[in-house]
Design brief:
The chain has helices at residues 50-53, 63-73, 91-102, 116-120, 125-142, 162-165, 171-189, 197-200, 202-205, 219-236; strands at 6-14, 17-24, 27-32, 42-48, 78-85, 109-113, 148-151, 192-194. With 239 residues, the chain is an alpha/beta fold. The chain has a 5-stranded parallel β-sheet, sandwiched between helices. The protein has a 3-stranded antiparallel β-sheet with strand order 1-2-3, with no helix packed on it. α2 crosses α10, α3 runs parallel beside α5 and α5 runs parallel beside α7 (171-189).
Length: 239
């Protein structure tokens, strides 16, 4: 996803909540904002790429929405007020396009899952580390580290089409390198991390967990990821 041009931002009122669409390079994907009227409800913002937005599944089946359902079942009032994510986004895209939107969300809690497209495109570990530091420091300006959860890069190369997308000879090594950077940078800041690398490899073992594109998780795959992410979210939120 290179040389994207932000062509326009359109706002509409839908069922009492504002919804914004960003039009990038001629295609569109919603980045939604929903109003919260209850002051006791945690405003959750999910930052990421196609894995976060739920490429190939309904929005309600993407792991952030499923995490909200699990937290609500455990007595936590939380609403996914914004999913600032788009298929193809890299760390650079999140910094350049996503954060100007993030500034207006008034988030109480944030998840960050980014880096897959950096690995696909062969970004150097050094540049990835620089970008991750910018991202984590920017998030910390609005949301404290103890209210942030970072999810590692899944092993996309294990999927039928994942290895074909990679531009490096050893994508698994690059993914592990990126995840080590994520772990270290989060440890320095006191940010909780969910390591999805091993769980994501189930996509190759069980075809029911994989969407039709042979790359992204199905609704069942997202449910498995949500089952791993939600306990950490609940712990961070004090449950």
């Amino acid at each position: 996803m290179r040389n994207l041009v932000l062509m326009s931002i359109v706002a509409a009122m839908v069922s009492g909540a504002y919804v914004f669409w960003t039009y990038l390079g001629g295609s569109s994907q919603p980045i939604s904002f929903q109003g919260v009227t209850d002051s006791n409800t945690i405003r959750y913002v999910a930052l990421g790429d196609s894995y976060t937005v739920g490429e190939g599944v309904a929005a309600r089946d993407a792991w952030p929405s499923q995490v909200v359902k699990i937290t609500e079942a455990n007595g936590v009032k939380m609403q996914l007020v914004s999913t600032i994510a788009r298929s193809g986004w890299t760390t650079n895209d999140l910094i350049g396009i996503g954060f100007p939107i993030f500034d207006s969300t008034s988030a109480d809690f944030v998840t960050v899952m980014i880096g897959t497209n950096d690995a696909v495109q062969g970004l150097s570990p050094e540049q990835f580390q620089t970008n991750i530091r910018i991202i984590l420091d920017k998030v910390a300006q609005l949301v404290p580290p103890e209210k942030t959860v970072v999810v590692t890069v899944p092993d996309f190369a294990i999927t039928p089409t994942g290895a074909q997308k990679a531009t490096t000879e050893n994508p698994e090594q690059q993914i592990r390198s990126f995840n080590s950077i994520l772990q270290n940078e989060c440890a320095e800041r006191g940010i909780a991390v969910v390591d999805l690398y091993d769980i994501s490899r189930n996509l190759a073992a069980d075809p029911r967990l994989l969407s039709k594109d042979g790359f992204h998780p199905s609704a069942a795959g997202h449910a498995q990821w949500a089952g791993a992410i939600a306990p950490v979210v609940l712990q961070v939120l004090g449950k």
